[in-house]
Amino acid sequence: MDPHLLRTYLTVARLASFSEAARTLGYTQSAVSQHIAALETDLGLPLLTRRPVGPTPAGERLLEHAGSLLLRLDAARADLARFAALPRETLTLVAAPLALAPRTLAALPATGVTLRTLPRDEVPAAVATGAADLGLVDGIAAPSDPLRLPDVAPFTARRVAEEPLAVVLPAGHPLAGRPGLRLADLVDARWLDAPEAAFPLDRLRAAHAGPAGHGFRPALRYEGTDARTVAALAAAGHGLALLPSSTAAGIPGAAVVPLTAPRLVHRTELLRPNGEPSGLAAELIARLDAPPAPGR
Fold it and tell me: Could you tell me which of 205, 225, 234, 263 has the C-alpha nearest to residue 120?
């Protein structure tokens, strides 16, 4: 299966237009049509309907594979390119918003660093394809358990931090005075829907292990990346939020109650390509491996 044809197919299916795909890819519309026809001939199946443009059932099935196949090819190209690359004097670090803890920020080299936030699900791909030198990704995990990361390429993941989780709610909420809260007690509550700045609601449902799609109803939706804003919204009564304890601390009007069950933590991991790091990447890794300074 020719990856160039597959990339064209993925673009046409995503844009639902041959002409838009041609503009995006820099091809003529005729070339795009020829790519799709060649791929359909190779596979012996129609992949797209033409009016309107959309995937056939076979095309839908191919879409389930196409993104990961192309990502693995891009990751392989980036991995091999590192063998010929000269040592770099700059560092590009991508991070999920909740992965940027104070200790991590303090460990950054003083110059030569570009820091970019991404949705947590995009961080592994950015490292695998060479769009970033290192990545910081976070998630919910059992204590000392590694995060479950997508298998996009060979890379090394190391723990940077683990800290307790807390439920953030208004100070006047009936549950605000509890010494701890169980996730099972909050299934029927209204939650802030903040997929990039807090934990997505589907992950709370998975952590609760209840019936599929059950509970954790969304209230207000926040589409930013500032976790402190999420905590402030929770304090104002717009829905509950589950956040790392340190992130939620000190928000006016907020009660921060530890999550006691299930036994989970907020875990942050540093992702890097396999091989020996050098330059600023090695410097940052060494700083993160060093014991925290007193008081941090």
Answer: 225
Q: Which of 148, 145, 205, 140 lies closest to 166, judged by CA?
A: 140
> For the residues 40-53, what does the mean pLDDT come to?
93
Q: Residue 166 has which token pair?
A: 């807390």
Q: What is the pLDDT of residue 82?
A: 73
Q: How far apart are CA 255 and CA 176, in angstroms?
A: 6
Longest dimension (CA), the chain: 67
Question: Cα angle vertex 76, ends 71, 79, to 5°?
Answer: 120
- CA dist 38 and 17 (Å) reads 17
Collect all residues with Cβ–Cβ distance below 8 Å to 125 and sequence separation of at least 6.
71, 75, 131, 150, 152
Q: Which tokens belong to 45?
A: 């199946």
Place of tokens 């304090």: 235
Q: How far apart are the first and last CA of the chain?
A: 53
Cα R_g (the chain), whole angstroms: 23
Are 68 and 152 in contact, with CB atoms under 8 Å apart? Answer: yes
pLDDT digits (tens, 9 = 90+) for 237-269: 999 999 999 988 889 999 999 999 999 999 999
Could you tell me the pLDDT band of residue 293, with boundaries at 50, 70 and 90?
low
Residues 150, 271 contacting (CB under 8 angstroms): no
Local structure of 89: helix, strand or coil: coil
Mode of pairing for the β-strands spanning 181-182 and 113-117: unpaired
